[in-house]
């Protein structure tokens, strides 16, 4: 760890100790409510769980106007959740999965105890959420594979014993978004309860598309419905059935070309009468110049379904739980991957995923000398992915007339010789079977030790095909070689293969806890984990088909404190995590290259605090300090500069990123907030909140390109609400990104920007939302 980061950590620890010491002298006052979590697959108080975790309640999610996981991440230091070109990425402490449909996730997502292992699942809209827990560090014993960086544990609201209902609406300026949601819940019979919820959301986006005929965006429309039935036929047996259907559609994108040379600018603009292209380069959120090839639209259409049954049976001192779930989603999307107003390159993809999971858990009651949990888990998943890339050089008149010489086309070659369609399909079946157990030995009332282990078997079968046809071709019979010169050259290499893979792992951990007093607990953890290996689902070349499993070893020391007569809640952790065979996916000129990066390490310090200053004022804060680097990564993809300069070719087509920072791992990030909640009359309250959110420089490009670094920034959010003190109604105004910071959460080099064909040194970025104001209204029946 470098000296600057050591100093940051020392200062943060010293500050935390100062807060603790000074707080003991303060007078008694209000008490913080206990936060109950299921981070250990049991209901426990957050302060009793020896895991570094962040928790956000469903009420806070609703009040802040957060619509999905990506919106939540800004409140969680050290965590990145964001959309890339065709997928979503989730990173905790600088570790996550890149853009490849064959990747498992480094951060597992669990909703009501069910594993959702695809990146696309993170795009689901928030609906009737009880709380979101973010567990940091490997969670291999209880949550299994693909939690090497952590897990996101989401709990939805249950049916209620008494009747309740609500309707809520909102409108957000600038993006012209509105939403309507509602729920009804209560008893149906003496032993049966139900809950029915639904939400509709629509927005026009924040990017002006100035291309002729272009579509502003990203326009979003989503609707989600969920029904829950809970049945208690006896005192020992409880059954819960949940069904959910969701649709999420996007038109347009928030991506745009931001960096381009005069040469590449001319090529991107050619073939279009768009007069705004050159002037729209840069990061202005209100200018986006881009279009797609003929008959293609920038669309992303998603549907999902969930059916789940959870059964609990209570013995005298044991509980047996069965969680059975079937989930499915499919999507179709089209992207303009030249990122310009030229009709040059586009890509359309379709994916469907079906998953069946079954888990059995047998757990003891807490509080004995020995507490234990054992379980069995089975998963069967089918993935189908197809995409096609259209290359339309005939859409650029300059290239048809003169630039063919750049790529070696013989004189007199027919127009459109380079126009082509490349078709790629990928199918995969995954089966996972695992058995696990965890035992806690309570040596005394203050000291306890927990040990856990999990044995897992993963088996995958994958098949892929690829062929290239003339532009507009739809059948493999259109296969041919595109001749670019006397020697000939395949723009895409045709292939057809089927591969199998099987692996098994033993993972687990040991944890020690000691209660210094009634209000202070310290813990130490050693654990490991793995992310399954697999097959490259995105590579357009006949190489790099398989990647190996990823392994992690993790050490953590932490403390959890309740001070000042339970008016202060302070949690801290220091950690050291090392990774072997880190899985990476890097875009290079025209395709993604998947490999294992060798070794990486992450060290850091985290803290969060909540203080009830008075009956009406609470203050909160969180801090994350990271030192995250590749220790060994000798075969990384090259940057654009390295490709164009010839340095990449001289080094065998790769670069050495050993000793360089990881993606999405800012040295420092954090937030501080204050809430004022007080009565203003006999029947109404006013609630004022202010949050300041800070992030240090973020390296976003997987190849370490300095053109894709988001500079440090502050964002400020605020809310004012007027509400009935009996909870019957609420009116609120929410301001987001009040300082109107222009930031981006994804970017990369544009297609062919490193090839030397005239498009070099061009980059695109995904621009985040500007300043908006949201009006909220809610009525509870």
What would you call the quaternary organization?
A: single chain
Distance between the termini: 55 Å
Helix content: under 10%
Largest sheet: 22 strands, antiparallel, barrel
User: What is the averaged pLDDT score?
Assistant: 86
CATH topology: Maltoporin, Chain A
Beta content: over 45%
Cα-atom radius of gyration: 27 Å
Instruction: Find the count of extended strands (DSSP E, 2+ residues).
Output: 41
Give the name of the CATH architecture.
Answer: Beta Barrel
What is the overall number of helices? Answer: 8
Protein model, in words:
By secondary structure, this protein is mainly beta. The protein has a single domain (3-780), classed as Maltoporin, Chain A (Beta Barrel). Helix content is 7%, strand content 52%. It has a 22-stranded antiparallel barrel. A five-stranded mixed β-sheet has the order 3-9-10-7-8. The chain is globular. It starts with a helix and ends with a strand.
Notable features of this structure?
7% helix, 52% strand, 22-stranded antiparallel β-barrel, mainly beta, globular, 8 helices, Maltoporin, Chain A
What is this structure's SSE topology?
Blueprint: H1 3-23, E1 36-37, E2 44-45, E3 53-57, H2 58-63, H3 69-72, E4 79-83, E5 88-92, E6 95-96, E7 107-111, E8 114-116, E9 129-136, H4 140-143, E10 150-156, E11 164-172, E12 177-187, E13 192-203, E14 219-231, E15 237-251, E16 255-259, H5 262-269, E17 299-314, E18 318-335, E19 345-364, E20 370-391, H6 397-401, E21 420-442, E22 447-470, E23 495-515, E24 520-531, E25 534-535, E26 546-547, E27 550-563, E28 568-580, E29 583-588, E30 591-596, E31 599-612, E32 617-632, H7 640-645, H8 647-650, E33 668-679, E34 684-695, E35 698-699, E36 709-710, E37 713-724, E38 729-736, E39 744-749, E40 763-767, E41 772-780
Parallel strand pairs: 7-10
Antiparallel strand pairs: 1-2, 3-9, 4-5, 5-6, 7-8, 9-10, 11-12, 11-41, 12-13, 13-14, 14-15, 15-17, 16-40, 17-18, 18-19, 19-20, 20-21, 21-22, 22-23, 23-24, 24-27, 25-26, 27-28, 28-31, 29-30, 31-32, 32-33, 33-34, 34-37, 35-36, 37-38, 38-41, 39-40
